[in-house]
Sequence to fold (183 residues):
Amino acid sequence: MPASYIATLRIQHVGIDHTFEIPEITAKRLTITYAAGSFTPELRLNGALIATGNSTTQGNKYDLTLSIDHPYAYKNGTYADQTSTHKCVSGSTYAIVSDFFGGPRDGLIRSRQKELSQSLANGLPDTSEQVLGETLNVMGLTFLKETSLTDRLAAELADTIFNRHHAIGLMAQEAGYYIDVKT
Fold:
């Protein structure tokens, strides 16, 4: 498929500016963590380091901008595109969760849960990117699935068809846990 027909996700955060084609991130764990000592943000895909940002101060908040570009030729070419900004606390852990296909399926959530179970069985600490990042990923995917099911139920009750182009946001662990999905 030509690149001009593929939706993209651009991530910008304290020196990180990286764009993924959506098939690159589908069914994978996408996280932002901070390196010990320098607190530089690290963008990882299934644990592999993709990009490193600039040093930050632990506990300070910094903007994280997520931009979705759908390649529709409708009107001015920005139909269904979205840019959202989140405040991230340096030293925390974030999973960037997304849905571009009508809600995560049970098989995907089981597969990600299996990855988490394997990391735990291998003795990795709860605070590692593999364990904490995957825990957040599974929680976020479960939320997206539940939201999709609710949307479908409401649409059926209203005798309508519901079509969401995407859902994207953060499942975060700062002082506590929260999810922030802007659709």
